[in-house]
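Anyone have tokens for Glycerophosphodiester phosphodiesterase? Sequence:
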Amino acid sequence: MAKRPLVVAHRGASDVSPEHTLAAYRQAVAAGADGLECDVRLTADGHLVCVHDRRIERTSNGRGVLSTMSLEELESFDWGSWKNPWADLDEDADLPDPDLRKVLTLDTLLSVVRDAGRPLELAIETKHPTRYAGLVERRLIEALDRYGWAHPKVGTESPVRVMSFSWLSLRRMRTIAPGLRTVLLMDRVPLRFRDGSLPTGVSYAGPSLEIVTAHPEYVDRAHKHGHQVHVWTVNADADVRHCRDIGVDAIITDRPEAALKTLAEPPTAPVPTVTYPPRRRPRRHT
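Reply: yep, here.
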């Protein structure tokens, strides 16, 4: 029987709570997720915040390019009301929850992982291109160092892994913190790596769901090269089952609670193929 993939909450439990908010991550931890996933961007005054987009219009009531703004400016915006824009019209609703509306710093999320009370992994995606280039990686290592997670001792492993679509970003990480695990995210597999290999120093493959759906054999190829396969973004129950059945090591999902329930189901036994002997043609009598 295929082993259960790890369930990693994509931007927190982002199907039910506003993505990248503290509430979304706390909900994912409560649901039993094995890990959390976040994107990080650097503010104009040098803080790493958990925001996916280059511009802030989609997930806040502000406007503009995030990298041109200070943390104080970002904290003045509402980062959660877009998920439920009619909440203010509900007279029975609770008072606004700051955990649903405040921009989340990476440092706060790191403390969630530290204080979870159980092993919990964190996958951090560095967003590129950015005006700050390698400064993002340096600030990230500084943040991880404060928790003792940037340079794990021999025989130990940091709970953090760094992901990127940028090979350059992962090479920087390898230079600064060679003990950290890295994941190369791919929306297509470059021709030279279709045999399951990865660039030197990259720990894990991070293909999209579309890749492993069209080419399930890629998972075995990566495993033969000693690489885990972490797939994004896996939300439908059928896709969760498919990833389990082909041996994916981790799924990144907006719906961690639902994914865990699906993975707890016993796998459906394959229907046996019955082979019948060829029918003998009756002998013709002349």
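Residues 6-88+95-264 form a domain with the TIM Barrel fold (CATH 3.20.20.190).
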